[in-house]
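Hi there,

I know you've been waiting on this one. I reran it after we fixed the sequence typo, so this is the corrected version. Both the input and the resulting structure follow.
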Amino acid sequence: MKTVLDFPSRPLTWVVGFANSGADLVTRMVAASVAWQLGQPAVVENRPGANALHAADHVARAAPDGHTLFASEQGALLLNESAFAPVANIARAALVLVAHPALQATNFASFTAAARWAGVRLRFASPGASLAHHIALQALKARTGVDIVDVPYAGVMACMQALLAYQVHVGVFTSHYVLGHIASGRLTAIASFSERRLPELPAVPSLAELGYAGMDIAPSLGVVVPRRTAPDIIMKLSAEVRRAVHDPKVGGKLRRLRLEPIGDTPELFAAFLQREARIWKPFLTVGPEQGLAAMEGTQHWRSS
């Protein structure tokens, strides 16, 4: 009878729902470190499509033996929460609301004024309905009451290209992705989806200081395995992921990407997902108005 001492007995497959993405890059960093510690190779398998839901379905059907892992942000996990067991949260990124300079919105007040002007409906570049970028904008629309049209694009890179070409007016991106464009004047930073100002953008106000508390919405990359995986295998994997995230070399690389390393336990990751569900789930299934109504009853969501 095999025990946790026999694990892993073959290469670990890390499935990611996005190719050529930040999630892919970070997963490869962590997977390589875990592979070295466990003495088995790591295979990172990209299964793009349906905002990582194809990847989620593939892992959910895999044997629950710990050899197939799913690295994903919250959306795909919350839509399939009964299929997975949490292993560890790796890192989170901060989101920033940005606008094309041609919109002439230089701050949050002028942004909301532009969004309420009857002469034009602002367009938002959405990378996918289950991604943090999209959820953040839906929550903002619900809180402010502004009318912004969601224009779907195939991923974050396509959204950036559309915004820079002024095919849309606004976008939501991680801070690392927009710092250069903000510094060059190609994009205008409006606000960060955070409780406090971001160190990398000290002149940009947070939504909390603008009066919108509870808007700390951010993509967080975590690792899960199929639900029936043995607890001792989950704990072994979690310990190695934590070791990798807290390794100075890996942690340093994460911070240079403007990511906040986490590296927590299965229990803490599970509790995190439960808290995130209060904000994410209403907007994963319904529109902004119904989403706001569902969220107002929670302690996490506070009125401005």
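Quick highlight: The domain at 4-93+219-281 is CATH 3.40.190.150 (D-Maltodextrin-Binding Protein; domain 2).

Best,
R. S.
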